[in-house]
Amino acid sequence: MIDTTTTSTRPASARARRQPARPIGGEWCVGILAIDSATQGLTVRSGDVSFTATRAASCLLEPAAGDSVACLRIAPSEVWVMAVLQREEGTANVLRSPGGLRVEVEGGALELQAARIGMKADHLDAATKKMTLATDSADVVGRELTVVGTKIKLIGSLLSSVMDRVQHFSKHYLRTTDGIDRVAATHVECEAKQLMRIEGEHTLVNGRELIKARGAQIHFG
C-alpha cells in the first residue's frame, strides 16, 4: 500500500508559493470636508455618506472646513484625506507637517518669491559659505546684538548712532577725516602712557578761566 499523503500535499504547497500575494485594496472618493470645533476631527461627506477621516502625511496643505478633498478609503473605519482639490476663496493656505520637516534640493537652487515673507521661530540658525543681502531699506531690532568676524567693513554715505554708553578697545586705532572732526562733551580726558602729540598749522588752546601746564620740564619754542 502506497502512502499518498505526502505526494498530494506537495503540489498544493508549490501552487501556494507560486501565487502572488494580493495587494490591499482601496477605494477613491471625493467629498466635502467638515471639522469638529471641539475635537478638531475630520469628517468627509461624499454624496449621502459621511465618514471620519485622517489627514495623510503627504497632504502638507492643512485641510479647512468646506474644502473639496480626495480621499482613499481602505476600510469602513480607515479613510485618508490625500489631497485638497479646491477651497473657498479667502481661506488661508497653511502647510503643516507634524514633527521635523526638511527641504533638500540636490544639484539645483531653491527660490522663494512672494510679496511678503515672514519668519517666526524661537531659534533661527543659518550656515552658509557666502551670503549676499540686497535691500533698499532694512531695520534690525533686538534686545542684544553680537557681531563676531575676522574682518568687518562698513561703507556708506552717512552713519548715525545713538547710544547711552559706548566702550571700545583695540590694539591699533587709526582715523582719518577730510573735513571737521569735532568732539563736544562736558568733560574730555586724553591720556597716553608714553607720548601725546598735538600738531597743526594753527593750534589754539583756549581756557575761559584757567590754563595749567605741569611737568618736570616745559619747553616753548
Task: Describe the 3D structure.
The structure is a single chain. With 221 residues, the protein is mainly beta. It has one helix at residues 5-18; strands spanning 27-35, 42-46, 49-55, 68-75, 78-86. The chain has a domain at 31-91: OB fold (Dihydrolipoamide Acetyltransferase, E2P) (Beta Barrel). The chain is elongated.
What is the fold's blueprint, element by element?
Layout: H1 5-18, E1 27-35, E2 42-46, E3 49-55, E4 68-75, E5 78-86
Parallel strand pairs: 3-5
Antiparallel strand pairs: 1-2, 1-4, 2-3, 4-5
N→C terminal distance: 142 Å
Helix content: under 10%
- Succession of helices and strands: HEEEEE
Our count of helices gives 1
- What structural class do the secondary elements suggest? mainly beta
State the CATH topology of the domain at 31-91. Answer: OB fold (Dihydrolipoamide Acetyltransferase, E2P)
Radius of gyration: 39 Å
Q: Which sheet architecture does the biggest sheet show? A: 5 strands, mixed, barrel
The overall pLDDT, averaged over residues, is 88
CATH architectural arrangement of the domain at 31-91: Beta Barrel
Q: Give the C-level CATH assignment of the domain at 31-91.
A: Mainly Beta
> How many strand units?
5
Overall 3D shape: elongated
Poorly predicted runs are none
| Strand order in space, largest sheet | 1-2-3-5-4
Percentage beta strand: 15-25%
